[in-house]
Amino acid sequence: MASNNEKTFGSKIANAETLASNLTTYATYAPVRPEESVVNYKALITSIKANNSTVASTQTTYSQATDKRVKLFTKNADSMLKTLTLIGGQVKAKFGKTSKEAEYITNLILKVRGESTKKLKKDNEGEFVSQSKRSYGSMTQTFNDIITTLSTYGIDYAPANAKIKLPALNTQLTAITAANAAVTVAYSAYKPAKDLRQV
Fold first, then answer.
1. Distance CA 190, CA 156 (A)
2. 58 CB neighbour count, 10 Å cutoff
3. How far apart are CA 22 and CA 17, in angstroms?
4. How far, in Å, CA of 111 to CA of 80, rounded?
5. Which three-class secondary structure state does DSSP give residue 157?
6. Mean pLDDT for the chain?
7. What's the CA gap between 40 and 38, in Å, rounded?
């Protein structure tokens, strides 16, 4: 059965405006505290509406920033995760599947993907210890480690595919680092506005 309770901020604001309108019809309304006067109550409603608009706009900015970041990391045709496959293939082709170079790059790629070549181990209490390093910050750092490692290979890392040449990888790293920063900035504007609305 559907609830008749109205709990959205929009419905609460509408109800508050109705209350303010009704209070103006009572000539004998004399609040004990000044903040409960009709004028101050209407000012509070105006403030709440302004804050609600801030929440809506900052939420949109935050949502757009997170969507862009997800695309750069995983969804786009040239996303970081798709680039990793090409890098792994290039290193294996150049150095051999069982080479130390291929093994090291493969381990870094698995770290970014949150996969492990080994079985999960249990800690002293018998709980599985996660091997995943999937935060955006850690994925960015590991991608940076991959680029740094590839640059140490010198002329041995010279892919034909322009997408995985070092300048392109550094451009990609710059883009995902900027995307992380944009999400942080957007969230730092959205979270306080959302918290203030709850007060």
1. 47
2. 19
3. 9
4. 13
5. coil
6. 86
7. 6
State both tokens at 146.
């991959």
> Is the predicted pLDDT of residue 5 greater than 60, yes or no?
no
Amino acid found at 178 = A
| Burial 97-109, CB ≥16 within 10 A → b, else e | eeeebbbebbebb
Is pLDDT above 90 for 18?
Answer: no
Q: pLDDT at residue 87 above 60?
A: yes
Tracing tokens 């019809």 back to the chain, one arrives at 25
Calpha distance 151→158 (Å, rounded): 10
- Whether the CB-CB separation of 95 and 102 falls below 8 Å is answered with yes
Please check whether residue 71 is in contact with residue 136, taking contact to mean a CB–CB distance below 8 angstroms: no
Q: Which pLDDT tens digit goes with each residue over 24-53?
A: 888 888 888 888 888 888 888 888 888 888
Amino acid at residue number 3? S
Q: What average pLDDT does range 167-184 have in this prediction?
A: 96
Contact 132, 114 (CB under 8 A): yes
Q: Are 149 and 104 spatial neighbours (Cβ–Cβ below 8 Å)? A: yes
| Residue 167 pLDDT greater than 90, yes or no | yes
